[in-house]
Amino acid sequence: MDLNAELRQKMHEEQQRYKEYLCTLPAMDIIDHAYEINLRDDILMVMDTAYLSNKQAKVLLESPTPLADVYRSVGKNEPGHIGSIRNDIRAIADAIIKQKETNMRDIPVYMESPAYALQHEEAEQYGASYEANVACRDAIQDAIRKNYRNNSLDISCAKQIVERFGLSRTQIVLASTIRAIEWDGRISNENKAWAKKVRIPDEVGREYHVRDCHPGLTDLFCRAVRKMGVREKQQKMSHDAI
User: Fold this and answer.
1) Residue 152's beta-bridge partner residues?
2) pLDDT band at residue 27, thresholds of 50, 70 and 90?
3) For the chain, N or C: smaller number of CB within 10 Å?
4) Counted domains in the chain
5) DSSP-based helix, strand, coil % in the chain, nearest 5
6) Which conformational region is residue 188 in: left (phi greater than 0), alpha (psi within -120 to 50 degrees), or beta?
7) What are the residues whose beta carbons fall under 8 Å from the beta carbon of 141, sequence distance 6 or more?
8) Distance (Å, rounded) from C-alpha 203 to C-alpha 23?
């Protein structure tokens, strides 16, 4: 089942449970909920034909009550036409995604393997770090696509990624990517040598690899991140010397 279909099913089941609950209330209380019932039904009607990206659908699926979450946000405004509700749903999903990514800088990088995490009851820490690594990869790919124009990459976008995900996580994603394509001549020898020195988590899979960008642009992006790492190390040494 695709994520959109799974989300639609979950929201319909949520509405059914909600209506069953309302049936246990006195008649006047049910009437008081008439507006809510109608708007939730409108949201479901939109969801039956709307298509969200996998990322948008996934973040809504993570909630135990996605329909209620959407209703609370849509219901704050005067309800508009179906197209307006569709845009609202996407905006809600995007806002949640942005908030999650903002908080990912504070998630520690988990360096052990999935097997180690299970054995030591650290699956939650592993899962959070895994999601942050994949999100970092997606953000790098998006930053490169949006900042490449006129045959030039605006490498200032690297700073934005490091600010969102931290230098360590950004370096790990890039180093893992370069190790996987070290045969590619479009990756500089300097970046290949650097990548071999970066400690990456055990059993890092292809999910972490920046793969939807030209390797030459990935190389430029990595060079910018490496320079940031050097500056951070120099600043730390200067601070410690004081």
Assistant:
1) 149
2) confident
3) C
4) 2
5) 70, 0, 25
6) beta
7) 210, 211, 212, 213
8) 51
* CA-based nearest residue to 170, from 204, 147, 125, 140: 140
For residue range 92-151, what is the model confidence (pLDDT) as tens digits? 998 888 877 777 888 999 999 888 999 999 999 998 898 889 889 989 999 999 999 888
Cα 91 off chain centre by? 15
pTM assigned to the model: 0.64
In the chain, the N- to C-terminal Cα span, in Å, equals 59
Residue 87's pLDDT is: 87
Q: Is 54 found in the same domain as 161?
A: no
- Give the Cα separation of 154 and 128 in Å (integer): 30
Query: Strand 152-153 to strand 148-149: parallel, antiparallel, or no bridges (unpaired)?
Result: antiparallel
- Give the amino acid at 229: G
Q: Indicate the residue type of 50.
A: A
What sign does the dihedral 135-164-126-172 (CA atoms) show? Answer: positive
Query: For residue 110, what is the DSSP state?
Result: P
Q: Which domain holds residue 163?
A: 114-241
Question: So what's the pLDDT on residue 203?
Answer: 62
Please give the DSSP secondary-structure letter assigned to residue 121.
T
Label residue 122 exposed, middle or buried (CB < 10 Å: 0-12, 13-18, 19+): middle
Would you say residue 109 lies in a domain? no
Contacts of 147 (CB under 8 A, 6+ apart): 153, 154, 155, 156, 157
Give the largest CA-CA distance in the chain: 74
Strand partners for 127: none
Asked whether residue 90 is assigned to any structural domain, the reply reads: yes
